[in-house]
Amino acid sequence: MARPVDPRRHEARRLQIVDAGLTVLAERGYEGATTAAICREAGIGSGTFFHYFATKTDLVLAILELGTADTVEKAAAHEGRTDPAGVLLDVLGGWADDAADPRIPGFVRAVAGVMHLPAVAAALEADDLAQRELLVPWVERGQAAGEVRTDLSAARIAAWLALLSGGFLERVATDPAFTVDGERDLLVATARAFLVGDRAATE
Amino acid sequence: MARPVDPRRHEARRLQIVDAGLTVLAERGYEGATTAAICREAGIGSGTFFHYFATKTDLVLAILELGTADTVEKAAAHEGRTDPAGVLLDVLGGWADDAADPRIPGFVRAVAGVMHLPAVAAALEADDLAQRELLVPWVERGQAAGEVRTDLSAARIAAWLALLSGGFLERVATDPAFTVDGERDLLVATARAFLVGDRAATE
DNA sequence: GCGTTAGTGGAGTGCGCGCTCCAATAATGA
DNA sequence: TCATTATTGGAGCGCGCACTCCACTAACGC
Questions:
Q1: What is the pTM of this model?
Q2: What domain range is B44 assigned to?
Q3: Which nucleotides of chain C does any protein CB come within 7 A of?
């Protein structure tokens, strides 16, 4: 028996290909990102590529799963805090910061373009679910603490926070004048106003 | 001299293909929407398709241009009104209503996936410009009338209205629980709060 | 050393696609 | 009616792509 799989080696190579794939997908879109281009970017042959990923779609799925895992991981960082509204704004700010990597908005667009593939749709749904499971409990705690409006359900508020985050990402990708650094604070302020609702005017 | 081009016939056929293209692009994305599928949907042969559009991309551009023209047309409808904030909210509400056609969000996603094509990027930029030229003057009038916050430039406020609209569209496309009918009013209310800013709390 | 197997590159393949081409038809003016 | 030309369908072509195959090397246990 010789040459057993070294998980470290294997994972490192996978990540190298994922990184190259993220770059190429972001700048050329799904159909523009040929496997040949990804291999060139990663400095490998096509044989190596398909040794690690059965199909091009599998690479996209792997990137999405890494993103979802990252979301879940970040969620744990806020465990134990007692300011629910603060947590929500921090989470939203963190997502905004993610958009600072210029590849993220491009990749999101590329993935949106192939959402008709069932596997991709499922992965995005899983990602969306992870986001909700992260947000909703904090929204509920915020409502219980009187920090967050109660005229909307927690799920609906979470959806609207996702709306702000998605719109922000899209805007950064589209509008050169719209930068993460310049608009991040306004995002948080707008989200805060939304979380509070119009109570400020009626109380 | 015989058989001169009949502009009415010509335009009607073009619109028929545009309509079929919108349907197929929305449900299958750009790469999934083969010209053969579009022809089948439209009930025509491929020869006819390429008689009206030189390339598949040209069809996408034609759809985008129709959308931009529609935006400009709608802008004219508000000419003469004296309630700038009301106009802005009506415009935003109108965009939300557009999302009620289930093909629109799907098409937007499909187009986002091929934004790396220079021609598509240019068309989207033109569309964005049309939106701005529609919004910015009303924002400025609203600021002059004291209806709209003045701590942000008119251009920035317009960008944020576009952010809300884009996020709304994406959310409708993604989340089955997020419907136009159910969320339209909240969109307008959120936009109103944003336009006013936090003056309500400080005045 | 030797045997074994993971890892690697790259030539090659098959297929699905956008698009071309052309014969046939329909609609007009004369 | 005839001549002319826009319009139409569909057979098929060429190309670029995802993916296969295989020869080869590198790394490990013994």
A1: 0.93
A2: 1-54
A3: 3-12, 16-23, 26-30
